[in-house]
Amino acid sequence: MFATIKVTPYIFAQGKVVRRLPDGAVAISAAGREFVGAPLVCAPPNAPPPQPAAGASAGA
User: Fold this and answer.
1) Model pTM?
2) Domain boundaries, the chain
């Protein structure tokens, strides 16, 4: 199984899941190295698109 994880606020990594840690973090193997981070949570495939906040202008 593959997963995408957040390694730092600006760096994501994708690779084969090696293990899941008790705190919810995931370890993956990518580029011959092991990375640990928070798994990326995706919306379900049939989820409706997000709606703009009330009072927000679409053409700003």
Assistant:
1) 0.65
2) 2-39
